Known about the structure:
alpha/beta, TIM Barrel, 2 domains, eight-stranded parallel sheet, 13 helices, binds coenzyme A, binds magnesium ion
Amino acid sequence: MLFVPASRPDMMEKAVRSAADAICLDLEDSVSAEEKAPGRAHVIRALQSLDFGSRLRIVRINALDSPFAYRDLVDVIEAAGAQVDLVMVPKVNAARDLAFVDTLLTQIESAMSLPRRIGIEAQIETAHGFLNLRDIAGASSRLDALIFGPGDYAASMQMPSSGIGERDSHDDDYPGHRWHAVMHMIVAAARAHNLRCMDGPYGAFRDLDGLSRACRIARAMGFDGKQCIHPAQLPAVNDVFSPSDAEVTQAQAIVDACARSEALGQGAAVHDGRMIDAASLRMAKTILNRRASTPTPGT
Ligand code: COA
Ligand code: MG
């Protein structure tokens, strides 16, 4: 997913030709207060006029404790709701936040006779959001994804951090992964409710090695993808989150070996010097399912 500030129509034109699977037009933190209203007009124009191909069209509204959020929804969804796939809600603190967005979307969809229900993505990036994850994940049938927001989360928890989603000297002081608790809770809440889970952005967009490392950690924890802020980040992210041919071959070999052992009436069997059983089959299938659902980037 590639973020584009709502104040940058020039970047929107580039984003819709990029290797991203999803484009998020951002009305929140990348847009100054004076640019919020003109930004909505840019977002509406882009949704109405640009060809996004098969890329998901996401609009990030402002936080619900700001004076901007209701007008983001009313103006953008009334004018271009038929061209919006998902509304991203930042700083979701509780289930009631999603209930508010859900209700307002229902009213606008009805008033404008929109042909499809618009989905919701929830950013988990506050202390309340973390503590209320269980309820948030089940708060709306529109909910499609949970997203970790490392910058705001660090601020909310008063965790010192010199960049957004980057490794720094504080990580050397901590005997573990500093974001593990919230990140793994997001994955668990997402899987329990059949939602996608996305890792947040990596601010140092010229540090591709650091980005790649952050992607590998998120992938190892079960995340489905990562938000990008610059097109140069897309290849590394697409690479890490798409199962490799080697992973797919290995997973298929385990599925085949499990089928052979089942035919012989065996539960546990030996494959490649390792014990495999029904759990191995379930793990292998997650890789094959991921490959089957991985879009060809940018098509
Ligand atoms: N989407 C589309 N195109 C982008 C882009 C983006 N997010 N970020 C940069 N580009 C384009 C630039 O316009 C430039 O195009 P050009 O070669 O045709 O002139 C090219 O990529 C190289 O950009 P570069 O000069 O390296 O960066 P920059 O200084 O123009 O922009 C940022 C850097 C960080 C300001 C910019 O990437 C950005 O605004 N990112 C999104 C920020 C955001 O949305 N944050 C909110 C979520 S955390
Ligand atoms: Mg944020």
